[in-house]
Specification:
Number of domains: 1
CATH class: Alpha Beta
Strand order of the largest sheet: 2-3-1-4-5
Shape: globular
Order of helices and strands: EHEHHHEHEHHEH
CATH superfamily: P-loop containing nucleotide triphosphate hydrolases
Oligomer: single chain
CATH architecture: 3-Layer(aba) Sandwich
Number of helices: 8
Length: about 170
C-alpha cells in the first residue's frame, strides 16, 4: 500500500512524510527531489530554462513510474495534484492525505525556509499571504479530493498513522 501526501508548499509533506515512512516501514520519495535528480537541475532551474508546463509534464511522467511501485510514501510537489488529472492518478496509486494549513502559517514557514521556491521568491510577507490565499482557493478543489484531510491540529505522526490504519481497515472491510 502507498501513502501520498498532498498540500501546499510548506505544509510539512516532506518533514512529516520522512517520519511517517520510517514509522510504517515505507520507502520515502519526495517528487521534487526525484525530478531534480532525474533532470540534474533544481526546480528553479527547470522553471527558468523550460517553464512550468515542462515541469508539470515531468511530474506526470514520474507519477506514471511511481504507480508501478508499492510500499511508498510519496511527498508531492504542491502543484502536482492540480495539473494533468494527477489527483485522480494519485488517488488510484494509494491513500492520499491532504495536509491542510492556513495561508498565514504557510507564508511564515516559507519565509523562514532556506529553500528556493520559484513561485514565491521576491514577494513580501503580505504579498505572499495574499498569493497563498488565492492559490489555496484554486487548489482546494484538488487537495480536497484526498482520501484523508488532516487539519493542522492533527498533523503529527501518531495521529496520521492512526488515520491511515483506520482508513486501510475501512477499505479492506468493503
Amino acid at each position: 500500500m502507498n501513502i501520498i501526501l498532498v498540500g501546499y508548499m510548506g505544509s510539512g509533506k516532506t518533514t512529516l512524510g520522512k517520519k511517517l515512512a520510517s514509522r510504517l516501514g515505507l520507502t520515502f520519495i519526495d517528487t521534487d527531489k526525484r525530478i531534480e535528480q532525474d533532470e540534474d537541475m533544481t526546480i528553479s532551474e527547470i522553471f527558468a530554462h523550460y517553464g512550468e508546463i515542462h515541469f508539470r509534464e515531468l511530474e506526470k511522467k514520474l507519477v506514471v513510474q511511481l504507480k508501478k511501485k508499492n510500499n511508498l510514501l510519496v511527498s508531492t510537489g504542491g502543484g502536482m495534484p492540480c495539473f494533468n488529472g494527477l489527483m485522480d492518478e494519485l488517488n488510484e496509486m494509494g491513500t492520499t492525505i491532504y495536509l491542510k494549513r492556513p495561508a498565514k502559517e504557510l507564508a511564515e514557514r516559507i519565509l523562514n525556509s532556506k529553500k528556493k521556491r520559484p513561485l514565491t521568491d521576491g514577494k513580501s510577507k503580505e504579498e505572499l499571504i495574499d498569493y497563498m490565499e488565492d492559490m489555496l482557493k484554486k487548489r482546494d478543489q484538488f487537495y480536497g479530493q484526498a482520501h484523508i484531510i488532516a487539519d493542522r491540529e492533527i498533523q503529527n505522526i501518531t495521529s496520521l498513522e492512526m488515520m491511515v490504519k483506520a482508513y486501510w481497515r475501512e477499505v479492506e472491510g468493503e
